[in-house]
C-alpha cells in the first residue's frame, strides 16, 4: 500500500476513493477500521471511512488514531486526513484536534490544510473558502443543522481548533508552481508554522500542491487535494497503472432512494424526483419520536410501489429543521432520522432491494453501518465526487450511491440509474 487515508464520514471517503481510482490507484474503501485479519488485497490505496465528524473531539481523535495504526501496519507510506470540502466543523470541532494528533503520531513538523474541490465549486482564495461564488459564511452551509458555517476564514477556523501555529500560502505563490510552493513550506517552517492553509482555484493548482507535498507524511483536506498525489508515486516508479474505474453491472433486484440530508442541493434533487412523477414519502422526526410512523409501514409502502423507484426522505427546509430541533434537540432530531433510515435500509434489503441511493453524509454512515459491508469497490462516477459502489463481503452484493448532501446536480437521483443499465 502506498497511500492510507482516514475520512471523517462515509460519503467523503467514497469521494476520495473515487478521486484516487480515477488517477490510476487501485483503491478500496473500508467501512470503519478493519480487523487486523482483514486483507485489502493488491491495492495501492485504502480509504478508511469513519463516522466521526460530529463526535466529541476526544472520540474523533481516538477513532482516527485507530485507523492510522491499521493503515501504518498495512504499510501505508503517506497519509491523508480527509474532511468535508466545506470544512464542516465548529470552534470545538474535530478537524484541528485530529490533525494535531496525527502530526504528533507521525513526528512531522508541517502539514497542509486544503479542502478545495474546484469541480464542485469549492475554492480557496486569501485563505477564505468559497462555495461557488459565495463565501462559505454566506452560502447555504450557514444553515447546516449540525455544523453551521458562519466564518469563511480557514486560518481563523483552524486556529480556533488546533494547537498548531497556522499559516497561509496565498494563490500568487501557488500559481508559480510546485518549486515555489515547496519554498513556501520551508519559509513556513522557519517561522514555526505547522499547519498551512493553501489557496487553490483550479485542478491545476491542486496538482501543483500535490507535487509539492510529495515528502509530507500527512496531508489534510478535501478529496480534491488527492488529485496530484498518485503522480508522485508514479515518478518514483512505484505506480504504473493509469486505469480508471470501470463500469460494473447492477445487482439484480429492486431499487430505492433514502434521503436524510437537508442541504439545498438534496432538496432540489428531491423536488426533481417528485416533479418527474416518482412516488415519495416524507418523514417527520417528531412523528418518528412519537411512534406515529414505523419502519415496517414505510417499507410496506415502498415495496407496494411495484415498478417505480420509491423515495423516502426526511429532508426539510431550515425553518422546519429548526422547529423539530426545538422540540427534540439538535442532536436527537438527527439521530432519530438516521436510525430510522438505517433500519429502513436493512428491511428493504430483506425485501429484495439491491440498488440504493443514500443522500447525506450522516445518513450514509448510519445506513452502511447497519448494512455492514466489509468494504466497497468503487464504480462509475455519477456526478463529481459521487460514484456507484459495490459492497464487498456480501453473499448478495448491493450497489450503493452514497451522496454527500451538498453534491450532485438537480437530476442526480434520476440519472444515477442510467449507469447501472
Quick take:
The chain has 421 residues and is α/β, with parallel strands linked by helices. 37% of the residues lie in helices and 20% in strands. A 15-stranded mixed β-sheet has the order 9-10-5-11-4-1-3-2-16-17-18-15-12-14-13, sandwiched between helices.
Q: Can you describe what's shown?
A:
The structure is a single chain. By secondary structure, this protein is of the alpha/beta class. 37% of the residues lie in helices and 20% in strands. The chain contains 15 helices and 18 strands. A hairpin with a 2-residue loop joins strand 7 (128-131) and strand 8 (134-135). It starts with a strand and ends in a 6-residue tail after the last helix.
Largest sheet: 15 strands, mixed
CATH level-1 class of the largest domain: Alpha Beta
Number of domains: 2
**So, the CATH homologous superfamily of the largest domain?**
Putative sugar-binding, N-terminal domain
Structural class: alpha/beta
- Mean pLDDT across all residues, rounded? 92
**C-alpha geometry:** globular
**Widest beta sheet: strand line-up:** 9-10-5-11-4-1-3-2-16-17-18-15-12-14-13
Number of helices: 15
Query: Helix share of residues?
Result: 25-40%
CATH names the topology of the largest domain as: Rossmann fold
Question: How large is the share of residues in beta strands?
Answer: 15-25%
Total number of strands? 18
CATH architecture level-2 label of the largest domain? 3-Layer(aba) Sandwich
Between the first and last Cα atoms, what is the distance in angstroms?
A: 33 Å
Oligomeric description of these chains: single chain
Radius of gyration over all CA atoms, rounded = 21 Å
Spans of at least 5 consecutive residues whose pLDDT stays below 50 are: none
Amino acid at each position: 500500500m502506498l497511500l492510507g487515508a482516514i475520512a471523517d464520514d462515509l460519503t467523503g471517503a467514497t469521494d476520495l476513493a473515487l478521486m484516487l481510482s480515477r488517477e490510476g490507484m487501485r483503491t478500496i474503501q473500508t467501512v470503519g477500521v478493519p480487523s487486523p485479519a482483514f486483507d485489502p488485497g493488491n491495492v495501492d490505496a485504502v480509504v478508511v471511512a469513519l463516522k466521526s465528524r460530529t463526535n466529541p473531539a476526544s472520540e474523533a481523535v481516538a477513532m482516527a488514531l485507530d485507523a492510522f495504526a491499521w493503515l501504518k501496519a498495512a504499510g501505508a507510506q503517506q497519509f491523508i486526513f480527509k474532511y468535508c470540502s466545506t470544512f464542516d466543523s465548529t470552534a470545538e470541532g474535530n478537524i484541528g484536534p485530529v490533525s494535531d494528533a496525527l502530526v504528533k503520531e507521525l513526528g512531522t513538523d508541517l502539514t497542509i490544510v486544503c479542502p478545495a474541490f474546484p469541480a464542485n465549486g469549492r475554492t480557496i482564495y486569501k485563505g477564505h473558502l468559497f462555495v461557488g461564488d459565495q463565501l462559505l459564511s454566506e452560502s447555504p452551509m450557514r444553515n447546516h443543522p449540525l455544523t453551521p458555517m458562519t466564518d469563511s476564514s480557514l486560518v481563523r477556523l483552524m486556529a480556533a481548533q488546533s494547537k498548531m501555529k497556522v499559516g497561509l500560502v496565498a494563490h500568487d505563490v501557488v500559481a508559480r508552481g510546485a518549486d515555489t510552493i515547496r519554498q513556501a513550506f520551508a519559509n513556513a517552517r522557519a517561522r514555526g508554522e505547522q499547519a498551512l492553509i493553501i489557496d487553490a482555484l483550479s485542478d491545476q493548482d491542486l496538482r501543483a500542491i500535490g507535487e509539492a507535498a510529495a515528502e509530507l507524511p500527512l496531508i489534510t483536506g478535501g478529496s480534491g487535494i488527492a488529485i496530484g498525489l498518485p503522480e508522485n508515486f508514479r515518478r518514483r516508479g512505484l505506480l504504473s497503472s493509469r486505469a480508471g474505474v470501470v463500469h460494473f453491472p447492477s445487482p439484480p433486484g429492486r431499487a430505492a432512494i433514502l434521503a436524510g440530508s437537508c442541504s439545498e442541493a438534496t432538496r432540489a434533487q428531491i423536488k426533481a424526483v417528485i416533479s418527474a412523477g416518482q412516488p415519495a414519502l416524507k418523514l417527520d422526526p417528531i412523528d418518528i419520536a412519537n411512534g406515529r410512523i414505523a419502519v415496517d409501514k414505510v417499507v410496506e409502502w415502498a415495496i407496494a410501489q411495484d415498478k417505480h423507484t420509491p423515495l423516502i426522505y426526511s429532508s426539510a427546509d431550515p425553518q422546519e429543521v429548526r422547529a423539530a430541533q426545538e422540540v427534540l434537540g439538535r442532536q436527537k432530531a438527527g439521530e432519530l432520522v438516521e436510525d430510522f433510515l438505517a433500519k429502513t435500509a436493512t428491511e428493504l434489503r430483506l425485501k429484495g432491494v439491491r440498488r440504493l441511493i443514500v443522500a447525506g453524509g450522516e445518513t450514509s454512515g448510519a445506513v452502511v453501518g447497519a448494512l455492514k459491508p466489509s468494504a466497497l469497490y468503487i464504480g462509475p462516477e455519477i456526478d463529481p465526487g459521487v460514484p456507484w459502489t459495490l459492497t464487498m463481503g456480501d453473499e448478495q452484493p448491493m450497489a450503493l450511491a452514497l451522496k454527500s448532501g451538498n453534491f450532485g446536480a438537480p437530476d442526480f437521483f434520476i440519472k444515477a440509474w442510467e449507469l447501472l443499465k
